[in-house]
From TrEMBL:
<protein>
    <recommendedName>
        <fullName>PAS domain-containing protein</fullName>
    </recommendedName>
</protein>
Amino acid sequence: MKKSELYNFIDKYSGVALLVDEHSVVIYHNNNIFNYQWYDDPIVGCNISNLFLNNSKNIGPLAYAQALNCLEKDRICWLTQEAIFNTEYYENVLYTTIRIIVKVESKEYLLLLIDEASE
């Protein structure tokens, strides 16, 4: 897959889409991340794991435990090289999350797709 094709997919994705390297550093994301009010500024170059953990500490112990669970799912996705679909809570909102390992120009990335779950 070409990087431009992947970036185009991310830009057009209706939910939040993040492209993350093996060190949890955000390589690219769409603007929908701002609609969910998680972040006010672009987070390219930031460690998404640290951002989630730090934000969840301010919310409370349950949110922190949920953020740790998300990190574990990221690790499992990298280890198994399989897509993982699940639901996760963040700030008491249920989200559907898809994690997929994609290979772009001989390098692997984690593509994280997040949508608010329908009731």
